[in-house]
Design brief:
The structure holds two protein chains of two kinds. Chain A is of the alpha/beta class. Chain A folds into two domains: 168 residues, FAD/NAD(P)-binding domain, CATH 3.50.50; 147 residues, D-Amino Acid Oxidase, subunit A, domain 2 (D-Amino Acid Oxidase, Chain A, domain 2). In chain A, helix 1 packs parallel to helix 5 and helix 2 packs across helix 8. By secondary structure, chain B is mainly β. Chain B has a single domain, classed as Roll (Ubiquitin-like (UB roll)). Chain B contains one helix and seven strands, in the order E-E-H-E-E-E-E-E. In chain B, a hairpin with a 6-residue loop joins strand 3 and strand 4. The chains are: A alpha/beta, B mainly beta. At the A-B interface, loops of A face strand 6 of B.
């Protein structure tokens, strides 16, 4: 496909964020949108993610965004005419320390006040929800039955194909080389397949969004960090919910296919773009999860992989236009929550670009918050 | 169905052991792969495919293909082609993907 000369919007990045923004812009009537992807769709963080979708957060904004995202997820297969394998088996969050118990109580009160169906439950109840759970050390738990997971590839492709049906042109294997600006306005994007004139660029480049920012002449305070995951052989259903703990630092889910996916965040992981894997991770992960679900000792691991979290200073996304470069929009720094927040973030991004305002206030997610010192500190992240 | 003489390899006499397949008593040699003992006993179907339940037999023989996953002494998904046979082993053809509950 040869590069077109002119576009109304150029989206950089063919992950869930870029493709869902493309779809929402097109759905709202925007014409002549193109999407550039350096490799292939879902080849970055989306296709490598843990696929969890949760509403159990510790800040009001995250709770509201996640709640609205779930509402969209619930009808997404139908809306996009593609089965995204949504599985609302809930999220069981386990508390192992007194500090966590207190945080969970606060979180539940906040979540319930925002209309999220979540409950603070006893250890006995947690064991009923996940019978193979080893409750040793567990002090309490919270459970939200409408949380869950979906297939990130299907969801990514579902958005991409729906966007294409609405006229969006997707260029795979097309690398952005340069973003030209004039008088602080976006003028064009140069790629290895040619140059395209455009007044609007949307940076949805995930792990490489900082580099895209530099091309537009701006410093975005994000960095990338490897997160590893492993997967087991498929086995008969063992448990429905996603299991998660902040203090023990893990998440674990069984896919509809039967394979069990698990991961944790290594606090010593250096910043960078490495997406290799390590045997230390496989060992540590296996030790962690077999302590929580002992029967996993008999289940074989088959593969491991890694992907990049695009981290912001407060682990919250940066969504909005850059104040110094007119037409340079960012949907970056999702800090490991891009997949679950994509449906709502993309809709709000499309509203922001086409209408200049959003149906849910996201002014606080602007890039200016770091200079103002108005960081949004989310206490509940892995 | 065993090769008794081979121009290059030597088969040393091993100890005979008894084991069961779905309750039926069979005989094999101690330390040989479970799947090998099953094949020698004329058992051709070791598992069933997940989706259509078609028969699956001895295939890759190096622990990669999943065709010989069986329940051994109550533990599902044992690669019987790379697991050594022992006296009194309880081998079962498993249903589904492996029930670990």
């Amino acid at each position: 496909m040869t590069m077109i000369k002119r576009a109304s919007v150029v989206i950089i990045g063919g992950g869930i964020i870029g493709c869902s923004i493309a779809y929402n812009l097109a759905k709202m009537g925007c014409k002549n949108i193109i999407l550039l992807e350096k490799n292939s769709l879902a080849s970055g963080a989306t296709g490598r993610c843990g696929a969890g979708i949760r509403q159990q957060f510790g800040t009001e904004m995250n709770c509201i965004l996640a709640r609205e995202s779930i509402k969209i997820f619930e009808n997404l297969s139908q809306e996009l005419d593609y089965d995204i394998e949504l599985n609302q088996g809930g999220y069981l969050m386990l508390a192992y320390t007194e500090k966590e118990v207190n945080q969970f109580k606060k979180n539940v009160a906040l979540e319930q006040s925002l209309g999220i169906d979540v409950r603070y439950i006893t250890v006995k109840k947690a064991k009923e929800i996940v019978p193979p759970l080893n409750t040793e050390g567990v002090l309490a738990a919270t459970f939200c039955p409408t949380d869950g997971h979906a297939n990130p590839f299907n969801t990514n492709f579902a958005y991409a194909e729906a966007a294409q049906r609405l006229g969006v042109k997707i260029y795979n294997f097309t690398e952005v080389r340069e973003i030209k600006t004039e008088n602080n306005r976006i003028v064009s994007v140069s790629t290895d397949k040619g140059e395209v004139l455009t007044p609007i660029v949307i940076n949805a480049a995930g792990g490489y969004s900082g580099e895209i920012g530099k091309m537009a002449g701006v410093e975005i305070p994000v960095y990338s960090q490897r997160h590893q995951i492993l997967i087991t052989e498929p086995v008969d259903p063992l448990f429905k919910p996603m299991l998660m703990s902040f203090s023990r630092n893990f998440y674990c889910q069984q896919t509809p296919h039967g394979s069990i996916i698990m991961g944790f965040g290594d606090p010593d992981e250096p910043k960078g773009h490495d997406i290799g894997t390590s045997w230390q991770f496989a060992r540590d992960m296996a030790q962690k999860m077999t302590a929580v679900v002992p029967l996993l000792k008999e289940v074989s691991m088959v593969r491991q992989w890694s992907g990049l979290y695009n981290m912001s200073p407060d682990s919250q996304p940066i969504v909005g236009e850059h104040p110094q470069v007119n037409g340079f929009y960012m949907a970056v720094g999702f800090s490991g929550h891009g997949f679950m927040l994509a449906p709502v973030a993309s809709r709000l991004m499309a509203e922001l670009i086409l209408k200049g305002k959003t149906s849910i206030p996201i002014d606080r997610l602007d890039i200016g918050r770091f200079e103002r010192g108005e960081l949004i500190i989310e206490p509940s992240v892995v | 169905m065993r090769i008794k003489e081979h121009p290059i390899l030597e088969f040393n006499q091993k100890e005979k052991v008894k084991f069961t397949l779905d309750g039926k008593e069979l005989e094999g040699y101690k330390g040989e792969p479970i799947a090998s003992a099953l094949v020698a006993a004329g058992i051709k179907v070791l598992s069933r495919s997940i989706k259509y339940h078609r028969p699956r037999g001895f295939f890759c023989a190096i622990g990669k293909c999943s065709a010989c996953l069986m329940k051994v002494n109550g533990v599902p998904n044992i690669r019987t082609c790379v697991t050594k046979l022992e006296e009194g082993m309880k081998v079962e053809i498993q249903k589904g993907k492996g029930d670990f509950n």
